[in-house]
Amino acid sequence: MRLGKYEIGRTLGEGNFGKVKYATNVETGKGFAVKILEREKILQLKITEQ
């Protein structure tokens, strides 16, 4: 999946609120990890805490 100048690749890990994916900056070739949060789970947590 491509998002701007970043290529989002394989899943490195998963947690309660989202996933950590390997991403590459296509301009520089540098790789890094990016956390992708699931909006619905975050909103549900906020509702539960109230």
Short description:
This protein is an alpha+beta fold and 50 residues long. The protein has one helix spanning 39-49, and strands at 2-3, 6-14, 18-25, 31-37. Strands 1-2-3-4 form a 4-stranded antiparallel beta sheet.
List keywords for this structure.
single chain; about 50 residues; alpha+beta; Phosphorylase Kinase, domain 1; four-stranded antiparallel sheet; 1 helix
Would you write up a description of this structure?
The chain is an alpha+beta fold and 50 residues long. The protein has a single domain, classed as 2-Layer Sandwich (Phosphorylase Kinase, domain 1). 22% of the residues lie in helices and 52% in strands. The protein has one helix at 39-49; strands spanning 2-3, 6-14, 18-25, 31-37. It has a four-stranded antiparallel sheet. A hairpin with a 5-residue loop joins strand 3 and strand 4 (31-37). Keywords: ATP-binding, Kinase, Nucleotide-binding, Serine/threonine-protein kinase, Transferase. It comes from Nymphaea colorata.
On the 0-100 scale, what is the average pLDDT? 91
Strand order of the largest sheet: 1-2-3-4
Q: Can you give the helix content as a percent range?
A: 10-25%
Q: In CATH terms, what is the fold-level topology?
A: Phosphorylase Kinase, domain 1
At CATH level 2, the architecture is 2-Layer Sandwich
How many beta-strand runs?
A: 4
Distance between the termini: 36 Å
